[in-house]
Amino acid sequence: MSDLSKIFAAMDATWPAEERIACGPLTLRRSSGGGKRVSAASADGPVTSQDINAAEAQMRAFGQTPLFSLRDGDAALDDMLAARGYMVVELTRARATTEYRFTGNVRQRSTKLAGTKRISAAAGAGKLDV
What we know:
Structural class: alpha+beta
Strand content: 15-25%
Order of helices and strands: HEEEHEHEE
Oligomer: single chain
């Protein structure tokens, strides 16, 4: 188990979601008012577009906005979510490129989108890579 995996396991143990539900290769978390981490889905293995559809439907059935927490090794899921229009809403302090959280249904304030960039930083780097 990597150091980051140990950190995520400790966070799950010390501030757990009210409920964890297996949804194919994704673990869904359900918590009423508990925050993003305890209401986010995370991948336990390779994820398909159909898996994302099922997770989104289940999270909506919970009354939650679809939210995904990405970790090392989730590059394919990152790409699939980005292609669906998901946006990063929070980066971890341990390593910004390690965990991305996405939320759906983002509304634009204008009719034009200026553009998007991926921003990342390694812990202790003191600078962002744009």
